[in-house]
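One-letter codes give the sequence; the fold follows as tokens. Both lines appear below.
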Amino acid sequence: MDAFLAAFLLPLSERRPAMTTIKNQLLNKRKSMGALIRVAATLLVLFAVNFGNSSAVSGAKPATSPPGGLRAGLRASNYGITPFPSPTWWVNSINSMAARFPGAIGEQVAVVVEVLGGGGRRDCWAHFPDPAPGTARPNVVFDTTDLFEATLTAFDQNGIKVWLQVEPASCDVPMLIDLVMRRYGHHSSVIGFGVDVEWYRKDISRLGKPVTDAEAQTWVLNTTSHNPAYQVFLKHWLTEKMPPTYRDGLVFIDDSQGFDSLDATLDEFSAWGQTFDPSPVGFQYGYRSDKKWWRKLSDPPSTIGNAILGRIPNTSDLVWVDFTAYDIWPPE
């Protein structure tokens, strides 16, 4: 059954629907808004300087890394990289990615629960056995073996951090938090829980249901009940899918793709970073849809990542996607 499901899911091409035109229209609107905001900000700065507001200028804080410092690593999913690498490959490749950014800690975004068919509108598929058989887990389908356990053990031993990400579909998110923490919460490498909002309640909204402030707060409280140090990330490419005002304990990850150049990528990512500043933000990059320009760079993970850091000071996470990881770090 697992082989059949994997074969069914792989052709979905990086799990992003074929909606480039819709996305570009939305991005163009947001970029126009971002441009107006940047112009307004520039005018305000000039006003302050011209009127000799030295106290305001001298009191400005220099750009600093978000609390917890910078993390850099790779995304990992059942459908994104074939064959699925060994723990040794993951450790070596993530350390290679992190070494491109002095002081960064290695990380993995592990998609431990993904959507299961139906256009992501119903069931979710956990890549591990049920940790509490007999407990009701509506709409969750379990594997008989664990895809991530050995890798997380290697991360424990090598100081690499891991986010436990879910694609919830119609599965209850607090239930999924409890589920994945029961399975993996004993690992010292775990730093928190993540939700790919594109795949949250697609039965309600084609691009994922927007997360409310109440939902975000509940998810943070549920997650930190397992460990007060845990954080929660919310991922999408549209800012309007994020909670309007709630920010405590959250990291906001942008997984935009399909750009024409590095400059276009940075403009889009910068708008994301400014929207959620001073909250920490992260970025997934290296998609096939962008390979037409990043393949020309001598060191794509480093060049793109350092350009992001130069433009977006509240960046906390730099993640190269698994879909093209073998292009940078060859298979064993």
Summary: The beta strands are 71-76, 105-115, 124-126, 140-142, 161-166, 190-196, 231-236, 250-254, 281-285, 315-320. The longest strand covers residues 105-115.
